[in-house]
Amino acid sequence: MASKLVLNRLRSLCRVSQLSDVRFDKLRDPLSIFSTSQNHVAWRSYSEASQPTPINPPPPPPPSPNTSTTTSSSLNEFELAKFSAIAETWWDAEGPFKPLHLMNPTRLAFIRSTLCRHFRKDPNCTRPFEGLKFVDVGCGGGILSEPLARMGATVTGVDAVDKNIKIARLHADLDPQTSSIEYRCTTAESLVEEQRQFDAVIALEVIEHVADPAGFCKSLSALTIPGGATVISTINRSMRAYATAIVAAEYLLHWLPKGTHQWSSFLTPEELVLILQRASISVQEMAGFVYNPLTGRWSLSDDISVNFIAFGTKSAKKDETLD
Ligand SMILES: C[S@@+](CC[C@H](N)C(=O)[O-])C[C@H]1O[C@@H](n2cnc3c(N)ncnc32)[C@H](O)[C@@H]1O
Fold first, then answer.
1. Which of 129, 240, 277, 312 is most deeply packed, by most CB within 10 A?
2. Which value, to the nearest 10 degrees, does the dihedral of the CA atoms of residues 276, 84, 156, 202 take?
3. Residue 108 is part of a domain; what is its CATH number?
4. CA–CA separation, 96 vs 90, rounded Å?
5. H or E element, residue 215
6. What kind and span of H or E run contains 282?
7. Residue whose CA is closest, atom 16 of ligand 1?
8. Is there a contact between 274 and 22 (Cβ–Cβ < 8 Å)?
9. Where is this region: Disordered (predicted)?
10. Residue 193: which domain range?
């Protein structure tokens, strides 16, 4: 399958780039991608980067009123404020979350096929995820959590924005099939502290909004049972993504509020494979989402240059996460 070829190419790039030494804070620097040749991805090693010595360490951040967390490494308050401001619109299919509503069938198709294969479930039955525990991290108003629950999964949805969780709860309670979803205003790292674990951990369109993507992936891994699965979707830090996901979607077509995405916060597929690998999650399959402006529909594709989704598995051996 072509998507497997894409993945093999990514894996070989990861090997070439000595990925064990990557500094992800440096990957936030958009100019860093221009400092590489075509065949070499934008990795920077610890040895290449000077280590800044803080003179006055900043005071610890105040606890967020929106969360019930004790650790908050993934929280980016600036990003959370944007979601809080539009929380009421989650279920407006023509509102700011229209792109996610339109993408939902396509991303659910990917989740259904990869997770059914992994957990040896029949993808053609109506409730293939019966008996499996899923967590939807950064669930927003629950537009993914609900169909997962209808497919039989026992779903926990968590989001750092309290308003999102309230909207998700209200909406899920409208249907007996979704009213059993456990919604909580919290973070992945807080669930780790509570020693929660799930068969599958899903975080769609969240990693580009968190403060520390590598730490976030470690939390996702810790939440995944040995032998379990992780699914992440995000946007590639490519020029095409800048042109389409930011300039077109936010400024020309007004699909999303201006400022929804910061290009420098996007991860390339190679970077995502790497940080998941460092968190003991081995990416098995990756696919792109492409939009057809004529039909208004999204479909799965081998083109991962803008929106992409990755399915990975955690080693069946316990506690292999690298520090
Ligand atoms: C673009 S939305 C995606 C929502 C949902 N995953 C989907 O795809 O339908 C990103 C969500 O992640 C949440 N979020 C951002 N940072 C988070 C964090 N550190 N922990 C939990 N949720 C977070 C935001 O509040 C927002 O609801």
1. 312
2. -20
3. 3.40.50.150
4. 8
5. helix 213-223
6. strand 281-292
7. 210
8. yes
9. 45-73
10. 69-314
Three-state DSSP class for residue 161? coil
Is 204 close to ligand 1, i.e. is its CB under 6 Å away? yes
Q: Is residue 62 part of a domain?
A: no
Does residue 90 form part of some domain?
yes
Helix, strand and coil percent figures for the chain, each rounded to 5 = 40, 20, 40
Helix axes 269-278 and 213-223, enclosed angle (nearest 10): 50
| C-beta 100 within 6 A of ligand 1 | yes
Give a yes or no: residue 290 inside a domain: yes
Return the residue whose CA atom lies nearest to atom 13 of ligand 1. Answer: 138
Report whether 204 belongs to an annotated binding site: yes
Closest atom of ligand 1 to CA, residue 211? 19
Q: Please, what's the largest Cα pairwise distance for the chain?
A: 60
Position 319 in a domain: no
Q: What is the pLDDT along the chain (323 residues), one digit of tens a residue?
A: 445 545 555 555 444 343 333 333 333 333 333 233 332 222 222 222 233 333 343 344 444 434 343 344 799 999 999 999 999 999 999 999 999 999 999 999 999 999 999 999 999 999 999 999 999 999 999 999 999 999 999 999 999 999 999 999 999 999 999 999 999 999 999 999 999 999 999 999 999 999 999 999 999 999 999 999 999 999 999 999 888 888 888 888 888 888 888 888 899 999 999 999 999 999 999 999 999 988 989 999 999 999 999 999 998 876 554 44
Based on the structure, what is the number of domains in the chain?
1
Q: For ligand 1, say whether the CB of 207 is within 6 Å of any of its atoms.
A: no
From 98, 102, 159, give the residue whose CB has the most ligand 1 atoms within 8 Å, as the site to mutate: 159
Judge whether 138 is annotated as a binding position.
Answer: yes
What is the model's pTM?
Answer: 0.81
